[in-house]
Amino acid sequence: MRLWLGCHPYSSSQRSMQSQLKARLSVFMFMQYFIWGSWYMTMGTYLANVLKLPGEEIGLAYGAFAIGAMISPFFVGLVADRYFASEKLLAALGILGGVVLCALPQLTTFGTFYPMLILYCALYAPTLALGNSLSLHHLHDAKTDFPRVKVFSAVGWIAGGIALSLLEGEQSPIQFYLAGGASVVLGLFSLTLPHTPPKKTGHNVSLGEILGLDALALMKRPSFAIFISCLFLICIPLYFYFVMMGIYLTELQWTGMAGKMTIAQVSDVVFLFLLPLMLKRLGYKITISIGIVAWSTRYFLLAGSVHAANVQTALIFAAILLHGVCYDFLFIAGQLYVDGEANERIRGACQGFIAFILWGVGAFVGTVLAGKVLGDHKLEGVTGPIQHDWQSIWMIPAWGAAAVLVAFLIFFREPARSRPSDTIELTDAPEII
Question: Which DSSP state fits 255?
Fold first, then answer.
């Protein structure tokens, strides 16, 4: 009996340590996305109504995150993975990011606000990859436990939006102070995470490895090239939503819009659990096509809501609730498709490549174009709350997404040996959830 008891304290201790680790990682993910959710969707409203910036500059401001996403692989690959423990770097990035966020409200011109915003995004974007890699490194059963931990990112985004609405801060500097305070807390909390030494100390890291350029060999496959092209193109209409939605709802005089928009993340969680079933039964082509259809439908609903009178609110909420289909069936399914097409040698490179294209270059092009469209559709000489031709604005990404759908359906071929995973594995890439 003594021997039997003696062989279990270690196992029990390990389980206890894993439970504590999962709790800490869940809090980390919650705080990380609380920060993002408390300013990203409402920054456009602040820039338009408080700083009075034109649409083109608002689009560029949203493109700051894309710049941060493009910088992140260089920072993580050349610096973080070679010289610093992840938890200490997360602490430094969180605290510095909080200071920069709290400085943003003091900057009232685009020329001063924009560089500081780029600096913040360059500090924040690496925390996404570092947080994911730290979690995957320490969780014993990462395939099972990481998605359960990661779901708290959606909860954090929801909480950030609700907190901002309760503070009535959608059109004020409160959003940056709220996010900045949370960022400092995140930095301090990061010091409680397990020690994670640099992975590539003393190793030479090539530019091709950092950007995933080894994955370019897959572009020789016509279907893979079509897939990457279509995903890049769909990023352009995608970012119309993030750049413009807060401004649209503000002009409609919605109250508590940040909290109301968080039902998108509730939808995201629901459809994330449905995704493996859809892939198993329908395959990649149909599932991804449904995701593209959802983006086009979302914008047609928003265009229809402009003059819909009694059903306007219902149409807008329907568009918001489509978020889970829009994101999970397109981007998460797309990441799994890329993972299935790559061999073990270039799998990491492929995920780095798709992240750089979609959340870096694609996001920058999409946000800049969205800002230009917003500026071009400003109504001149109006005195009411509606300052833009919203029906025309929303129709542009609606038809753009429809055009991408046609190209995808015609040219993309279902892989001969589809390997949809039963478990969703989220990559180190920045995510717009």
Answer: S
